[in-house]
Design goal:
By secondary structure, the protein is α/β, with parallel strands linked by helices. Helices cover 27% and strands 28% of the residues.
């Protein structure tokens, strides 16, 4: 997946590690020794429940995992953290929508701090960031436990109705985003808006600039724009399905593909700006990054590499594991 990360030049870092000096280590997981990217991303899925039904969500169409009790969940996570403690691992907290599980989320934040892991990202649609638990907003708990980097708030459009249409649900309003931005600024937290590129919404460099200008008035200076993974057409027909049903499946895939916008096409538009300057290209194991200067902004174009192009995997066909996933008592390497 290719992305654009845009921030003020004052905030040069969009990652907390240097991709050009990243390394490899080994971990036995699910009975097999795997080559791990350093630092590896441990995605902690607080729960799959969400107040939206986004068509591009990677959990879309997947069977709902049975939720275990908080006690068992936290015991399993603590065992994982004890095992990974001291290893090159960073934490991403995600869902579902993690703020819909406030009690579980607070315990997880406290555990991450207890075991000394660095935070990479907190992924949210913003619904409960300002929700009060025992008199404090969730963002205050995040501040107190060091969860202050890349608070990635998904926002697909500046227009409230358009955002609800895309999310197929109601999330934080623009007024709430403004409040969250003020809280983040006062408490030195990195709030970033994350937007998927979709046909008819934010689908061009001009629309990206309009989006950033709008939320820039809220004091937000960090943005991420990503392309969705285009769905493949259905090519398999079961013995009981008829040709008409297969045809319907193909048409549905075509409709979703029509929403797809390539980051590379956006970059082609972006490079037409007179004061756009390519500063350097950084080469890493799993992605390369073109870094541009544009006025008071720094723009990074992340270009992912397929598994076979990733350096450092000794055996042919062996892919580097860049992420671990903890969900409902289980640690695994794939979503």
């Amino acid at each position: 997946m290719n992305t654009l990360k845009i921030t003020d030049r004052k905030k040069l870092l969009t990652e907390r590690h240097n991709l050009e000096t990243a390394g490899i280590w080994e971990l036995e997981i699910q009975g097999k020794k795997r080559k791990m990217y350093s630092p590896c991303n441990l995605n902690i899925v607080i729960g799959r429940m969400c107040n939206c039904d986004c068509g591009f969500c990677f959990f879309q169409g997947k069977r709902m995992k049975k939720q275990i009790g908080d006690e068992a969940y936290l015991a399993g996570l603590e065992a994982v953290m004890k095992r990974l403690r001291g290893l090159p691992v960073e934490i991403t907290i995600t869902g579902g929508e993690p703020t819909l599980y406030p009690e579980r989320l607070i315990h997880v934040l406290e555990m991450v701090k207890k075991y000394g892991f660095s935070h990479r990202t907190f992924s949210t649609n913003g619904t409960g960031l300002l929700k009060r638990v025992d008199g404090k907003p969730l963002m205050q708990y995040m501040k107190e436990t060091g969860c202050i980097y890349n608070i990635s708030l998904s926002r697909m459009a500046v227009d409230e109705a358009e955002n609800r249409r895309i999310f197929r649900g109601d999330t934080i309003r623009n007024g709430g985003i403004s409040q969250a931005a003020v809280f983040a600024e006062v408490n030195d937290m990195d709030l970033r808006l994350s937007c998927n590129l979709l046909e008819g919404s934010v689908d061009s460099w001009e629309k990206i600039r309009e989006y950033m200008d709008f939320y820039g008035t809220y004091g937000i200076t960090s943005f991420l724009f990503r392309e969705i993974i285009p769905p493949k057409k259905s090519t398999v027909v079961s013995e009981t399905a008829d040709r008409d049903k297969k045809h319907v499946s193909d048409v549905m895939a075509d409709d979703k593909n029509k929403e797809y916008i390539s980051v590379s096409d956006i970059v082609t538009e972006m490079k037409q700006e007179q004061d756009m300057e390519l500063l350097k290209t950084a080469h890493g194991m799993v992605y390369d990054v073109d870094i541009y200067s544009f006025g008071d902004k720094l723009i990074k174009h992340y270009q992912g590499k397929p598994g076979k192009a990733q350096k450092g995997c000794a055996e042919e066909g062996e892919e580097l594991v860049t992420s671990l996933i903890y969900e409902e008592g289980e640690l695994r390497t794939i979503w």
